[in-house]
Specification:
Layout: E1 2-7, H1 21-30, H2 37-57, H3 61-71, H4 91-103, E2 111-112, E3 116-117, H5 122-133, H6 137-157, H7 171-182, H8 187-199, H9 215-235, H10 251-255, E4 262-267, H11 292-301, E5 311-318, H12 320-325, H13 342-345, H14 349-359, H15 370-373, H16 376-382, E6 385-389, H17 391-398, E7 409-415, E8 420-425, H18 440-451, H19 457-468, H20 485-488
Parallel strand pairs: 5-6
Antiparallel strand pairs: 1-4, 2-3, 5-7, 7-8
Helix pairs in contact: 1-7, 1-8, 2-4, 2-18, 3-4, 4-5, 4-9, 5-6, 5-7, 5-9, 6-7, 7-8, 7-9, 8-9, 11-14, 14-16
Enzyme class: lyase
InterPro entries: 2-Methylcitrate_Dehydratase (IPR053420), MmgE/PrpD_sf (IPR036148), MmgE/PrpD_sf_1 (IPR042183), MmgE/PrpD_sf_2 (IPR042188), MmgE_PrpD (IPR005656), MmgE_PrpD_C (IPR045337), MmgE_PrpD_N (IPR045336)
Keywords: Lyase
Length: about 500
């Protein structure tokens, strides 16, 4: 990897295009380096993972709305597939609908470093474009390897959250870069697409603050859609604001710390394989990734607490990010509100830890049900839980050594009789270094579990076979899943829109 210093440049300053971060990323995207076998295998795992969480969310209202928006953009030639239904739809709208399905339950892969990300958000957009252009499975894999690489590398070096910019600002450029790789576009075209994609996907982080709405799922889907549109315009000869990150009125100068701020972005050297996906991890539980280890910890600790009504106080010692984003450091009263939205509850570690302690399990629907959140005993326990930032957990959160990097916490449970029960867990059980790391069998099990009652067994089998044969498929549309009419009929009714 090569480290690149990225900072604001004055308009009068000599700053060759070849030194712009967008150009450096474009060069990585245009590098025809082969995809390593372990990277390829993980890409297939994540295609399965995305299908799993899409099956679990397909009948939810936001996903239904996005699907119906896409249905208004059916095409007679080309086009891409929309999860759950037959037909061909414009690639950007298919990417949007599928992106919402993937993101709705906060249940797919994650990468955490200087900033946050869900790199699996690259898949719906890049796959939709692949179906539209009828590229090979091999080229799709190459594009996805780049999408993951660029998003992870940006997340390693550039924190958006510090300045309350939503993390999808790293997704637009990564989608554009991935499409550039897949379509074998020239460096300059990819460069222009990256600039456009970033310029159209910078937004504030209010989508993940306070009373969180369904836009939390739509935001990354919108970024993927913008990535496709940016590449389309760039291929037609249109340019972008430049230098997009480093300009005097660019993203760093006005959104990310000002003209004196510097970032160091690592990128693969020419000829270096793209392996960043191997540093990402998926979720066993449908909740914010920083809740994964605490859920596993709560399940373990409940065996040591005979009567939860006798709990006086629970303090979770954890990282800066966990404390301020999903903990009491956020100062969001909604995180203690039993009437809060599902999107808010899955960003409340206090709620999540309480329910995991009580139930000893976690379910993507039942654990968030209004009747579950409103149990009096749950509310009482929930309100006894708080978080504090611990410098050691913050250090481990940012550690570069994978054996040190951790997203867990130490829980101190003080009982009414004065007894204190303490336990900690650094990484989730499903993490590559955890007690039960996910590999292909676990991804397939997650898919089968979430698809049960939604996707027929025959369709499940067909899809998994298509994933295994991805490089030999004549039609990447086979990577879509179609639901039976009686299942789709269970989707909620929604008002008519504009389109």
């Amino acid at each position: 990897m090569e480290n690149h210093v990225v900072k604001t440049r004055r308009s009068a300053e000599e700053f060759p295009r070849e030194e712009h971060l967008a150009f450096l990323i474009a060069q990585v995207a245009a590098d025809p380096v082969a995809v390593p076998e372990d990277t390829k295998e993980m890409i297939l795992n994540r295609i399965i993972d995305n299908a799993a969480v899409s099956a679990a969310s397909v009948l939810r209202r936001p996903v239904t709305v996005a699907r119906r928006q896409a249905e208004a953009h059916k095409v007679s030639t080309g086009g891409a597939k929309v999860f759950g239904i037959e037909g061909n739809y414009s690639a950007e709208w298919a990417a949007f609908a599928n992106g919402v399905a993937v993101r709705e339950l906060d249940f797919h892969d994650t990468f955490l470093a200087a900033d946050y990300s869900h790199p699996g958000d690259n898949i719906p957009a890049i796959l939709a474009a692949a179906q539209h252009k009828k590229v090979s499975g091999t080229d799709l894999i190459r594009g996805l390897a780049t999408g993951y690489e660029i998003q992870v590398d940006l997340v390693r070096g550039m924190c958006l959250h510090e300045f309350k910019i939503d993390h999808v600002a790293h997704l637009g450029p990564s989608v554009a870069a991935g499409l550039g790789t897949m379509l074998k576009l020239p460096v300059d075209v990819i460069y222009q697409a990256i600039g456009q994609a970033l310029h159209t996907t910078t937004a504030t982080r209010q989508s993940r603050k306070g009373e969180i709405s369904s836009w939390k799922a739509f935001a990354p889907a919108f970024a993927g859609k913008m990535g496709i549109e940016a590449v389309d315009r760039a291929m037609r000869g249109e340019g972008a604001p430049s230098p997009i990150w480093e300009g005097e009125d660019g993203v760093i100068a006005w959104l990310l710390g000002g003209p004196d701020r510097e970032y160091i972005i690592p990128l693969p050297a020419q000829g270096e394989p793209k392996r960043a996906i191997l540093d990402t991890f998926t979720k066993e539980h449908s909740a914010e990734y920083q809740s994964q280890a605490p859920i596993d910890l709560a399940r373990r600790m409940r065996e040591k607490i005979s009567d939860l009504s006798q709990v006086e106080e629970i303090v979770l010692h954890t990282s800066h990010h966990t404390h301020y984003v999903i903990g009491t450091g956020s100062n969001d009263p909604q995180k203690f509100d039993p009437k809060a939205s599902r999107e808010t509850l899955d960003h409340s570690i206090m709620y999540i830890f309480a329910v995991a302690l009580e139930d000893g399990t976690w379910h993507h629907e039942h654990s968030y049900a209004p009747e579950r959140a409103n149990r009096p005993e749950t509310i009482e326990l929930w309100h006894k839980i708080s978080t504090v930032e611990d410098p050691e957990w913050t250090r481990r959160y940012h550690a570069e050594d994978p054996n040190e990097k951790a997203f867990g916490c130490r829980a101190e449970v003080r009982m009414k009789d004065g007894t204190v029960i303490v336990d900690e867990l650094a990484i989730a059980d499903a993490h590559p270094l955890g007690a039960r790391p996910f590999a292909r069998p676990q991804y397939e099990e997650k898919f089968r579990t979430l698809a049960e009652g939604v996707v027929t067994k025959a369709e499940q089998d067909r899809f998994l076979k298509a994933v295994d044969n991805i490089e030999r498929l004549d039609d990447l549309g086979e990577l879509n899943i179609v639901l039976e009419a009686d299942v789709l009929a269970k989707a909620p009714s929604t008002p008519e829109g504009l389109l």
